[in-house]
Specification:
The chain is an alpha+beta fold and about 180 residues long. Helix content is about 25%, strand content about 25%. It is built from 4 helices and 10 strands. It has helices at about 5-10, 35-55, 110-120, 175; strands at about 15-20, 25-30, 60, 80-85, 100-105, 130-135, 140-145, 155, 160-165, 170-175. Strands 3-4-5-6-7-8 form a 6-stranded mixed β-sheet, sandwiched between helices. Strands 1-2 form a two-stranded antiparallel ribbon. It has a two-stranded antiparallel sheet with strand order 9-10. β5 (about 100-105), α3 and β6 form a beta-alpha-beta unit. The chain is globular.
Length: about 180
């Protein structure tokens, strides 16, 4: 299936969400309570920050991403994305110039999700990729370097650390990301 066929596809009638991976459909599973709480914490913090500090930017939940690598056959869906450009058309299902992409790892999708990261880095607009684990307190941040390259390894952050998202000028604590989860109990 091509991206255009995928975007025109009405779905399978179950309400399940799919990505397009090398021309094949890949179903996305329901999340755990901890995953959902992490998602909500990130969404609230980033949305509130953008409203007050970056009004031209928009946080999008489950945005469609069309990577530059094998673009006709891949349509990936991170948990969150931030763009600072308005949608190009009404009803658009993808953002073409995200500056920040966020993935929350789950037990059921860990390897698939990590496989998306190299494809996200092919988009010239992406400055940062944040990877948050929903099974343990662990955050990884990849930031594009001034020369345009990506670091060989992400910055790993723990409970006592803060995350600085330079692309949107937001600093938040790792504890804030995991607030209300069983991982802090």
């Amino acid at each position: 299936m091509t991206v255009e066929e995928f975007l025109a596809w009405p779905g399978d009638g179950t309400g399940r969400r799919y990505e397009l991976v090398d021309g094949e459909l890949r179903a996305q599973e329901a999340t755990t309570v901890d995953h959902g709480a992490i998602h909500a914490n990130l969404t609230a913090t980033i949305r509130n920050h953008l409203r007050s500090s970056r009004p031209g930017c928009l946080l999008v939940v489950a945005p469609g991403i069309e990577p530059h690598l094998r673009a006709n056959w891949n349509f990936r869906i991170p948990d969150l994305g931030v763009t600072c450009s308005p949608p190009k058309t009404k009803g658009e299902r993808r953002i073409t110039d995200p500056v920040l992409l966020i993935e929350i790892l789950s037990e059921s999708n860990r390897s698939d999700t990590l496989g998306n990261i190299p494809l996200y880095s092919t988009l010239p607009s992406v400055a940062e990729i944040l990877i948050v684990d929903s099974l343990k307190v662990s955050v990884e941040l990849l930031q594009r370097q001034p020369d345009g390259n990506w670091p060989r390894m992400p910055v790993r952050l723990g409970l006592e650390d803060s995350v600085m998202l330079a692309s949107i000028n937001l600093e938040m604590s790792v504890a804030e990301i995991y607030e209300g989860t069983s991982l802090l109990s």
